[in-house]
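step=encode ok
step=design start
structure_in=
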């Protein structure tokens, strides 16, 4: 009976009452809309599937509170909006890969009369001057883009050690460039 319902609000209300077929139809009916919406809001098609899944997880956890006063589509898209906002806040609070300003600074600090001198050579020379532990962590997190937690696990260090070594490596590189 629930599969014959096409209205998302009716499907949500039936799903709220425990109708698993209605729940399946509800998700299938609105999945494409939610995915399009989160893709547009996040501007990141790579995370759209994860955000869509997170939206539906949140919706299913609070489905018991849905009373049908607004359309289920509107209700679900408001959950999607909050899901994307939370994801953007979470990403903004993560450590970022170092800006590429060090490449420009390395180029500018080298003599201009050397033909074909590349920033990679300058960076390699600067990195060679760093202590081994700082160099390893800096290259892994800032150049290879490995998240701090994953680098810590890989290297067998606490995350705080990875963060402090990256910070010290940045300071060392800035001091070397200024010298």
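sequence_out=
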């Amino acid at each position: 009976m629930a599969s014959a319902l096409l209205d998302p609000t009716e499907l949500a209300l039936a799903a709220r009452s425990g109708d698993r077929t209605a729940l399946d139809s509800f998700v299938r009916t609105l999945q494409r809309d939610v995915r399009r919406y989160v893709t547009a809001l996040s501007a990141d098609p790579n995370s759209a599937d994860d955000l869509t899944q997170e939206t539906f997880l949140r919706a299913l956890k609070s489905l018991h509170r849905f009373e049908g006063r607004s359309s289920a589509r509107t209700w679900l898209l408001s959950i999607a909006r909050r899901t994307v906002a939370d994801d953007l806040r979470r990403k903004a609070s993560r450590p970022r890969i170092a800006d590429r300003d060090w490449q420009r600074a390395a180029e500018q600090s080298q003599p201009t009369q050397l033909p074909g001198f590349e920033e990679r050579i300058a960076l390699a020379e600067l990195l060679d001057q760093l202590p081994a532990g700082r160099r390893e962590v800096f290259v892994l997190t800032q150049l290879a883009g490995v998240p701090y937690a994953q680098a810590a696990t890989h290297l067998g260090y606490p995350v705080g050690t990875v963060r402090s070594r990256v910070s010290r490596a940045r300071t060392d590189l800035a001091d070397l460039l200024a010298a």
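step=design ok
step=annotate ok -> Residues 6 and 56 are 18 Å apart (CA to CA).
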